[in-house]
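Worked example 3. Consider a protein that binds alpha-D-glucopyranose.
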Amino acid sequence: MNKIRVLLIASLLSGSLAQAQTKRIFSESAAAKEQRMAWWTNDRFGMFIHWGIYSMAARHEWVKHNEHMTNEEYQKYFNFFNPDEFDPTTWAKQAKAAGMKYAVLTTKHHDGFCLFDSKFTDYKATNTPAHRDLVREYVNAFRAQGLKVGFYYSLLDWHHPDYTMDDVHPLTQTDTSQANYDKLNKGRDMRKYRQYLRDQITELLTNYGKIDVLWLDWTWGKESKRGKHAEDWGAVELIKLVKKLQPGILVNNRLGLDDYEDGGDFVTPEQVSTAELAKYRGKTWETCQTFSGSWGYYRDENTWKTDHQLLDLLITSTANGGNLILNVGPTARGEFDYRAKNALDSLSYWMHANSRAIYNCTYAPDEYKVPENTRLTYNKATRRLYVHLMEYPEGHTLVLPGYKDKIKYVQFLHDASEIKSKSEGDDVTLFLPERKPTIAIPVIEIILK
Ligand code: GLC
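Given these inputs, the predicted complex is written out as structure tokens:
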């Protein structure tokens, strides 16, 4: 990863952990917010989909930036984009089988290409050989499968003629001089671009029925003239527009409105390790993660997370009271490649057996100590505690420290088979089968008193 990306990610993370602010844009009460977000906090698990003409380059969705391409050089992807295998019903079924309850699709990424039919640009799927509004098909298919539907929309736009230069724009990468900025900015007008943002957001939030999530991306460089700031987007007006058009919608925190308590509904730690997730407890958060190192389809990228790592992310997110949105980068033909399919299949297998330890769950109250090499999730309504065996205990016994008099019944979750136990002092010892069940991370369900 290059230096600038590291800096950008660091700025996103620090932004998300900024001090609680008292300024407000809306007058919604905490209880009303909790109610509006209840489906999302209960569902815990979503699918991110990064798809666009960069999928053809198949070497990162930032390819235009990484390779400093001009609009002309990038145009070939537009001219030949023809996703002949695109079948969003298959995508939706794959997401649903993996236990994902909502999805967020890139309607426009930083390259400015729109998967939807917008009146305000020609740079859209309907003008490529695809000839269709791909967003509409996604919305219909995912909704029909009972999934909640979200839109990702890039605030950046490396194609729009009014979008001004900044330190990540593809055209500023080789010549960072002010003279180059001035030359390139001639005739560009962010006021017009702000109107374009409002117009497209209006289209997305009026033409496709109820939209559950809007994922806006992103704002950076608070201290720098070469970043983009809330004022560049007209962020306050924009979020007001969003909530006016879709009062029930959830909006992420990347508009740069960190000075406001309600400048976003949830924070978005990106590609963080499981060890870091604990510090988000008490906030409303969703970690976004890739299967491999890239969001867009990347043919030759081979650092794919293992099935165990993916499960760890899901479990550890729930165990710290947050959501996981896991990304798939479909190919330019419109399919999930075999590596993504395999990963989703393994999640499906685990979720079929163990989703009860994820949905409607959060971290356990402090009185329940975390046994060695496990994570705890907890369903408040059913008073069930879930012990995730991250490593199968040696000697096949597990000590639950201080659990005496807290337990009614114990079983494996995947097959509801009884687990015998014995109290010793304040602790309870569980007697597990000698052989680890054929579940990557087995879960013990404790029915609490
Ligand atoms: C970053 C990247 C982008 C990706 C997003 C997902 O901000 O710019 O490529 O879409 O994160 O979280």
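Take a moment to read the result before moving on. The pocket of alpha-D-glucopyranose is lined by residues 50, 61-62, 217-218, 270, 288, 295 (CB under 6 Å). Residues 402 and 426 are 5 Å apart (CA to CA).
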